[in-house]
Please model this.
Amino acid sequence: MQVGADLVGSTLMKGIATAAVLALSAPALAGEPAGAGGSDVLARVQAFYEKTTDYRASFRQVVTTRSPRRTFTRRGTVYFKKPGMMRWDYKIPDEVFYVSDGEVLWSYEVEEGVAYRLPVRRSDLFEALRFLTGAGDLTRDFDADVEKPIDSGLVPVRLTPKGDERMFRSVTLFVDPVTGETRETEVVDPTGNVSHLWFEGPSYAPLPAEGFRFRPPEGVRVEDLDPR
Model:
């Protein structure tokens, strides 16, 4: 069971880490002028993170693994609601759902007919979810490097954890320098695997909390990954 738990935990973290980045980046409000200095960019990202409570967007995710060397693409819809709620509905190429109400994280693999349950606060995932609970602080928890604009005009903001972060090596926000909106994110895990996400059609309308409560469908096998 421990081997299975480790494998599932690794898969879960791809969704967890990107969710933490999304909560951290909290796209800026349209029309807000961006400052010229890097410190202004960081302050704006933090300010809008604190203001944003609900978020929905379509996403495209390209994952590049080191061993074995391969690249694959996934698509779906992400939902986020403070405090601590998230939902990633993967539809392409397979249906997989990551759902958390802030207390329990579920991973439901439709084709396999199995749902994994993990109490968030009793796991190593809790620190990775700090931004979803409203406890994170950009300048306190990360060393930030605001880089030169890339060809698309977006400004990369590379964040490196200050502490002993075992979930990811770095995260990068690709920010619109005019609006401050984060349009892409990139997560590098401790083994060098890269997950790049593009967000499309964002909405900030209030989301019902019921949508973040998962109930395993009848006949689905449930496996508990409680680390106790």
